Amino acid sequence: MKLYIYIVLALVVFTFYQCQTHRKTVEVNKELIPDTSSSQVISAEASIKLMKVEDGFEVKLVAAEPLISVPVASVFDAKGRLWVVEMVGYMPDVQGKGEDIPNGKIVILEDKNGDGQMDTRKVFLDSLVLPRAICLIDGGILVAESPNLWYYEIKNDQPGKRVLVDNEYAAEGNVEHQPNGLLRALDNWIYNAKSTKRYRKKGDQWLIEKTHFRGQWGISQDNYGRLYYNDNSTNLVGDYFMPGFAAGNPNLKHVFGFEERIVRDNRVYPARITTGVNRAYVAGVLDDSLRLKNFTAACGPVIYRGNLFGPEYDFNAFVAEPAANLIKRNILNEKGFEVSGEQAYKGKEFLTSIDERFRPVSLYNGLDGALYIVDMYRGIIQHKTYLTPYLKDEILKRNLTEPLGCGRIYKVVPKGKRLAKLNFSNNPKVLVGLLGHTNGAVRDMAQQVLIDGKRIDAIPYLRKAITDKTHSLLVIHALWVLEGLSVLQADEVLNLLKSDNYNIKVQALSVIPSIINVNSSGAYIAVLQKMLKENDELIAPYIAFLAGYIKPYNEKATDGLLVALGKKYPKNRYVSTAVISNLAHKEEAFATSIANVLPDTNLVINQQLQNIITRLRNDKKSKDPELLNKEFPKGAALFASSCQTCHAADGNGISSLAPPLNKSEWVTGKKDNLIAIVLYGLTGPVKVNGHLYEAPEVSSDMPGIAHSDEISDDDVAQVLSFIRGSWQNNAAKVNVEEVTKIRSLYKGRDKPFTITELETK
């Protein structure tokens, strides 16, 4: 045991020494740092001096090496401590060799003296391979370590019993394209980015349910439990409705109101030259000053819900861009249930840095109201799967590979504002009162403390809270705490459904699936039928979402609601897809019945139904995937890890990411073109089956894999043969010699192809 302790101490000292020795020269010559910035390691204090933040704010250090190393995610506990995920093994060099070494950790940071900076570090878990997310819940912690999701009991800050929650949490994709987030949301479920699963702990059992696919890295919620996320090239995406609804029909590829582009403007304004981005050599990626024009690594979004910044920052979204060393601010607005937003500034950002190693990857609301920034602080941010030779040269040219042991956490606060430290009292009345706190992070924590502590002594105060007429957020959180404690009563929900407050009414509707039973179903059906007659178009989608939950108790009432909604709102795309979300494998029968009252085929609901019916008929013609898996095992595996995350398992593409491969002329056409695209990538619009796909409908760039040391010509031949024979594609196989020929023909190329180039070949 002593030897182990000495080894750990030696590693910590070595990591600290690495960062210290690399920063000495720059600290001495700080005045000589050019406008194009430092690329060397400097201290956290020096790095703060290279940041420019919005007027009236300042950046303060929370933690830095050796307390933390390569942080990627964090979460507060009720004591105000930070639990941090350290992904130490990420990209040790430009080849990514050594990523399988178990050197990742979960650590606990604590501010003992109350000065706002963490001063102690405790390792909770070590020897992890690329850990990516954590969530504190019910006296334990969820830890995502691909491909598994584990739950550890916590005993005196040490791991206790370990339970496997999901052995396929992150079974597919690479490090950049695997689930993460583990956000405990308002509805007491845990949601993820880059995933279609949600989780919930009920006693000793873990529930896993299908939900909507969301984002790439990072996930956040607003005051009403709606989720927000993004992908690498997209500013902000989110949901208009509560997250648990409308994911039950696998035939419905997109439910309007979910995965909506909230902020469409993807322009960024770095403070420094950003030639070190993956495709900086492509025309239009950088502007005339050699700065990134649009997001290329957007991640870690957060909806600011604090009480520190002032009212103009309420309902603002902050988004990290580590490739351009900045954090963007967006201002969001609501119109009905629709949410839209715009960038807060033109020509500048909320926070920028000229320190190239400043890599903000995750943003959080703090219990003190501050905006917290997790900074990986490293040179390499792009994963090896998509690392171009150009970027490798940039990394080597500026010696960005080392050191690897740094990392920082900062917080942004208004200048001169005193940050109050909050203690979560054990008094049930006080805890319930915190459910109405002006800081959303405090409300969330109070909700979790009450539920995790199984605080039945708080029930009288909770019941009183949901009758409050003046504090809607207190009512909403109290409602979900009662639900989380399994003591919410039907009469309480029915009373809230009469509220004049739209947000309270929506939450009451959203809680019905959790508590509906044989005895209460009749009352809920009557309320939904009454609401339908009130012609409230904002509530109509929720009536449709709930129809499926009353079906086990009254199928006739369900059918009646769905037909009535379709008839009343045939042009409303939100209501239409909400209706169809209940019709898995019964779309044709419903289309026939609705056609009797709505014969116009141009109506939105009829068009949506017909699109699904046509696709289902076509899918029946698709080939058996198991046969192709056996014929091209390496190709199937490569498709799952590198292609499926954007093009979807059924080859029909994913909105905002990539166009379809199924029945694509670029897949089934000339082999040379397809090989060239896969090896070297594709940029710009592409026409597939007569439809022009371009940003923001899909990403403007598809990365190539020619420069990966781990993907051979045989692998490429197999994956291309796999997709050329999958689904309804029926094209000839690709052999190794054909791949080798194209690789040789374009040897040294580092630019992606354009469609114009390929068409003129």
Overview features:
Neuraminidase; 32% helix; globular; 761 residues; Leucine-rich Repeat Variant; alpha+beta; 4-stranded antiparallel β-sheet; 6-stranded antiparallel β-sheet
- Uncertain stretches: 1-18, 20-36
CATH homologous superfamily annotation of the largest domain:
TolB, C-terminal domain
CATH architecture of the largest domain: 6 Propeller
Total of DSSP H or I helical runs spanning 4+ residues: 22
**Cα shape:** globular
Q: How many structural domains?
A: 4
Strand content: 15-25%
Write down how many β-strands occur, each being a DSSP E stretch of 2 or more residues.
30
Mean pLDDT value: 90
Q: Any idea of the CATH topology of the largest domain?
A: Neuraminidase
Radius of gyration: 26 Å
Largest sheet data: 6 strands, antiparallel
> Termini distance?
65 Å
What does it look like?
The protein has 761 residues and is an alpha+beta fold. The chain has four domains: 413 residues, Neuraminidase (6 Propeller); 75 residues, Leucine-rich Repeat Variant (Alpha Horseshoe), CATH 1.25.10; 105 residues; 135 residues, Orthogonal Bundle (Cytochrome Bc1 Complex, Chain D, domain 2), CATH 1.10.760. It contains 22 helices and 30 strands. The longest helix has 27 residues. The N terminus is likely disordered.
Give a topology summary:
Elements: H1 2-28, H2 44-49, E1 51-53, E2 57-64, E3 71-76, E4 82-86, E5 104-110, E6 120-128, E7 131-137, E8 140-145, E9 148-155, E10 158-166, E11 180-184, E12 190-193, E13 195-202, E14 205-214, E15 220-221, E16 227-229, E17 236-238, E18 260-263, E19 299-304, E20 316-321, E21 326-335, E22 338-343, E23 351-353, E24 360-365, E25 371-375, H3 389-397, E26 408-414, H4 428-434, H5 440-452, H6 459-465, H7 472-484, H8 490-496, H9 502-515, H10 518-533, H11 540-550, H12 555-568, H13 573-580, H14 587-595, H15 604-619, H16 625-631, H17 633-647, H18 665-668, H19 671-680, E27 682-683, E28 686-688, E29 691-693, E30 701-702, H20 713-725, H21 736-745, H22 755-759
Antiparallel strand pairs: 1-23, 2-26, 3-4, 4-5, 5-6, 7-8, 8-9, 9-10, 11-12, 13-14, 15-16, 16-17, 17-18, 19-20, 20-21, 21-22, 21-23, 24-25, 25-26, 27-30, 28-29
Helix pairs in contact: 4-5, 5-7, 6-7, 7-9, 8-9, 9-11, 10-12, 11-12, 11-13, 13-15, 14-15, 16-17, 17-20, 19-21, 20-21
